[in-house]
Amino acid sequence: MNKKIIAKAYINKHKFLFIKLWIEVGWKNKLVYINSFLHNMYHYMFFLDGQSKTDLSLIGGLVPYENTQLFTGYHQGFKTSLLNFQKKYEQFIKLPGLKLLMTTGFWGSLISILFAITIEMKYVNGIIISSTALGVLLIAFISPVDGLMRYVYPLLIFTPIIIMLLLTTNLNNVNAKKVNNIRE
Fold first, then answer.
1. Using CA atoms, how far apart are residues 69 and 67, in angstroms rounded to an integer?
2. How far apart are CA 67 and CA 52, in angstroms?
3. Is 50 left (phi over 0), alpha (psi -120 to 50) or beta?
4. Nearest Cα to 103, choosing from 62, 151, 43, 20?
5. How many angstroms separate the Cα of 41 from the Cα of each of 33, 62, 168?
6. With 70 as the cut, is the pLDDT of residue 172 above it?
C-alpha cells in the first residue's frame, strides 16, 4: 500500500521539474546553500558540542518539523520493545565517555588525524585505506544528512584497521632496525 502511495506522489511524476527548480533556487541563493552546507558538515568534524545524533528517535523525527506525514494514508508505528530499547539506550549513553564515542564529530576528527599520520609516515597501504575512509566522510559532507551517526558507521570499521596497520608498520620498522644493528 505504501509503495502505491509513494508512486502516485507529485514529485515522482515530475522529477525533472523538481530538479530544475532546485537548481534555479540554488543559483539565486548561493549564500544560503553555502551556509547550510557548513552547518550540515560541522557535525562531522566538531565533537565538543556533545551532540549524539544516533537517530534512535523512534517516535518521530529529531526535530519538531520532521514529525510530519509526507503522504496521506502513511503511518509508521513502532513496537513497545523498540521504545523500551530507546529508553535503555538513552540511559546507557549518559555513561562517561560513551557520549563522546557516539558523536559523528569524534569519528570524523579521528579519521582525519589517522589520515594525516599515514601521510606523515609515507605508508602507502595506510594512505589507501585511510583515504577510503576519508572518502566516506567527504560523501557525508556533500550529502544532506546532517551529522547522523549511521552515516559514519563505516568509519568505526575503518578506524581499528588503520590503527593496526600503523602499529604493525612501526613494529616492522623497529624489528628491521634491530636486525640491521645486529648485522653491523
1. 7
2. 19
3. left
4. 43
5. 12, 17, 33
6. no
Q: For residue 133, give the amino acid letter.
A: A
pLDDT per position as a tens digit, 46-104? 776 666 666 555 444 444 545 555 555 555 555 666 667 777 877 777 777 787 787 88
The Cα diameter of the chain in Å comes to 80
SS3 letters across 71-106: CCCCCCCCCHHHHHHHHHHHHHCCCCCHHHHCCHHH
Give the contacts of 2 (CB within 8 A, at least 6 positions apart). Answer: 71, 74
| Cα dihedral sign, 78-81-87-88 | negative
Using one digit for the tens of pLDDT, what is the confidence trace for 20-50? 998 998 899 988 888 877 777 777 777 766 6
Residue that has been written with the C-alpha cell 534555479 in this structure:
24
DSSP one-letter string for 135-154: HHHHHHHHSS-TT-GGGGHH
What span, in angstroms and rounded, lies between the C-alpha atoms of 3 and 149? Answer: 27
What distances in angstroms separate CA 110 from CA 95, 104, 156, 159, 183, one per listed residue? 21, 10, 10, 8, 39
CB of 141 within 8 A of CB of 48?
no
